[in-house]
Design goal:
Elements lengths: L40 E2 L5 E3 L2 E2 H8 L3 E5 H15 L3 E6 L6 H9 L3 E4 L2 H9 L7 E3 L6 H10 L3 E4 L2 H13 L4 E8 L3 E4 L1 E3 L10 E2 L4 H11 L3 E7 L3 E4 L3 H21 L5 E3 L17 H18 L6 E4 L3 H4 L3 E12 L5 E5 L8 H5 L6 E2 L8 E7 L8 E9 L7 E5 L20 E5 L2 E6 L4 H7 L3
Parallel strand pairs: 4-23, 5-6, 5-16, 6-7, 7-8, 8-9, 9-12, 9-13, 10-14, 13-15, 15-16, 18-20
Antiparallel strand pairs: 1-2, 2-3, 4-17, 10-11, 17-18, 17-22, 19-22, 20-21, 23-24
Helix pairs in contact: 2-9, 5-6, 7-8, 8-9
The structure holds pyridoxal-5'-phosphate.
Amino acid sequence: MSRSAHPAGPRHADVLPEGHYSAPPADLNALDGKVWSQTVTRDADGVVTVGGIPVTRLAEEFGTPAYFLDEADFRARACAWRTAFGHDADVFYAGKAFLSRAVVRWLHEEGLNLDVCSGGELATALSAGMPADRIALHGNNKSTDEIRRAVEAGVGRIVLDSFQEIVRVAHIARELGKRQRVQIRVTVGVEAHTHEFIATAHEDQKFGIPLAGGQAAEAVRRALQLDGLELIGIHSHIGSQIFDMSGFEVAAHRVVGLLKDIRDEHGVELPEIDLGGGLGIAYTSDDDPREPHEIAKALTEIVTRECEAARLRTPRISVEPGRAIVGPTAFTLYEVGTIKPLDGLRTYVSVDGGMSDNIRTALYDAEYSVALVSRTSEAEPMLARVVGKHCESGDIVVKDAFLPADLAPGDLIAVPATGAYCRSMASNYNHVTRPPVVAVRDGEARVIVRRETEEDLLRLDVG
Ligand SMILES: *Cc1c(COP(=O)(O)O)cnc(C)c1O
């Protein structure tokens, strides 16, 4: 393995091509605790470890690319959310961020509830022993089969997303001789993403029933009339990767307005309000997420204040963090394959995975950071773009990042904060097999989702 086989790439000092990056970090070997999970450190010999195990050993044993999930960090985050909201609120982990049976067991043990949005997620949750009454079923187009299985299993709530579904769920519950607890998902005309929120026109989307024009009030009217349903509350989810609480403020104001209208019209005070998920995490050092206890305090205050103003009893609050729990707990480990310096632009670093294990960069223009983890380097920073091995020029994992200029094929690099929406959105594009998820804790590593094999791929191809 040669460390000097390629010409030096462009340096930050002489070129600053278009891109989204700040100055190179003072120390490329340093690991920012904001973007790496709790137990990640760099050993005296320069190798990064997680849960006490060096990444070089993990790569040997499990191969690359692979996701390594810091179990202690996951449990700590789940517990922090649970504790922050206390006994008068419920925390539902959004399973779509990443779901496996091990994760379901950890959540169960840490006292969290679980959101699922498909039959597959429901099956995973039930098979790992999550009590059905702690599961919520979501989705804008649940099949009748999915609804039936959920009602039969006795899920704690189904979040109704359309007028058809109100009737469907009521019908299935009656057939099964049950009364299903439900919430109605409304769109409040607020959409929040990262640091901004927009308070107009965002009813133009597939989820929920608009508050505007009285549609949500009509949905409530219908749900209250059907004996298969027990309407327990109103649900609102305003976006993702949110740092600014003002979007929640507007949402809570509008949802409480509906609760008040319901009380005035029907004489019932619905006992629950669900504010959804979407709380942001640090993907790079520029992001400053809030702690769960700050979020809990802010949300509780907002709802309490709005309810006092409307003279309503404060309903039980629930929240649905996905990314904020699992996102920071994992990193993806890759091996560097080829390195291509482009004069005056940047250096393209190709890894053994790509958009099949992390579609977020291509899909959302997401930002990530990256570090050389199999050794330290004192070389100058080199402006790099980490790309995958897929047949697509948009196959980018990290758009702009600084890596040491002596980076070489065979080096291991890791992308932190890939716990959410990476494995769960992974694909087989180019018939690349999906990487494993390995849980690491106290010096032990175990596969919780195994690597897909070419045999797996061929088994589905029945000729
Ligand atoms: C996606 C989603 C969540 C979780 O979002 P995160 O950004 O992962 O916190 C919560 N609730 C609903 C209804 C969702 O669709």
